[in-house]
Amino acid sequence: MQSNGRLETDDLEIIPTAVPREGDGYQAPAQATGEVTAGLIGEVGRTLTEDDLRRVNTRRGLLQLIKSKNIDLEDVRKTLLYEQELQQLQVELVRLQRWVQADGQRIAILVEGRDAAGKGGTIRRFTEHLNPRAMRVVALPKPTDDERGQWYFQRYIRQLPNKGEIVFFDRSWYNRAVVEPVMGFCSKKEHQRFLQQVTEFEHMLYEDGVTIIKFWFSISKEEQASRFEARRQNPLKQWKLSPVDEKAQELWDSYTRYKEEMFSKTHTTFSPWIIVKANDKQAARLESLRHVLNLLAYKGKDEAQIRLTPDPNVITRFHRKMVELDF
């Protein structure tokens, strides 16, 4: 990489085996992207036509095309490096999953955070190359009438990992800690009962051998507003907006109060909260993957060709002395 910080022709390392990923932007046919990485497509593809991509067959040609489109070369460089690291970490995740299957481990990964914090996108990066037979993503809808008459944790118990399985919860039983009381979906008594029971519930799982990893993706109020606006402008992402999302900015302070109470009462040594600074989506994804890989003692871990220790500027455990986590 050039010392002056500018991206030059030799800096463009093109990975021929990469394939564009659904939902990341422009999607060109595979034959048109043989020398363009998935990350490059995701970052700049909205400004490149299929015909443009067909004309790119050298590094210099790609560089000239990018410049002609007024694309930020630093963004391209960052995205190429991100995709390279992501691929290496995903290789390690495949190794981790093989260990989970062989050793009969049960892993539950809870992904929580404010609306538009990047939860779903991070889960996709975790799961896109894993064996679906030994992995599930759980994103439960609102409870049915029957479920509302059950013990609160009952419907989540049915979703817990089986032997040799990893389960990702895209929101979890912690809905009752923040979203439900903020939006008036539960009573004050139900909320307090949850806070009393949840640590006992998680301790029973811990004693039975279930590994629980609890992530909270933390973004600023300004970043949330920006992401909501991007969703409104993108017809492919408008489905993500819900009535709850629309009130998130208005109720920001209420979310903060309930979130802080949740951390204070549910952060334990056997089930700690891991805070992810998520204003930078790419950093949040990479460091979350690193945290899981660093935490679990899977076979082959010592042979990893990439750093597995997460960046403490992005990933940290909750501490009760922390005042405000959302920047």
UniProtKB/TrEMBL annotation:
Specify the protein name.
Answer: ADP/GDP-polyphosphate phosphotransferase
Q: Which GO terms describe its biological process?
A: phosphorus metabolic process
Q: Which key words are in the record? A: Kinase, Transferase
- Which top-rank group of organisms is this from? Bacteria
Enzyme Commission number(s): 2.7.4.-
The record's SUPFAM superfamilies line, in alphabetical order, gives:
P-loop containing nucleoside triphosphate hydrolases (SSF52540)
**Assembly, per entry:** Homotetramer.
Q: Which InterPro entries match?
A: P-loop_NTPase, PPK2-related, PPK2_PA0141
GO MF term set: polyphosphate kinase activity
Report the family membership: Belongs to the polyphosphate kinase 2 (PPK2) family. Class I subfamily.
| Top-level taxonomy | Bacteria, Pseudomonadati, Nitrospirota, Nitrospiria, Nitrospirales
Task: Outline what the protein does.
Answer: Uses inorganic polyphosphate (polyP) as a donor to convert GDP to GTP or ADP to ATP.
Instruction: State whether keyword Kinase applies.
Output: yes
Q: Where is the Polyphosphate kinase-2-related domain?
A: 82-302
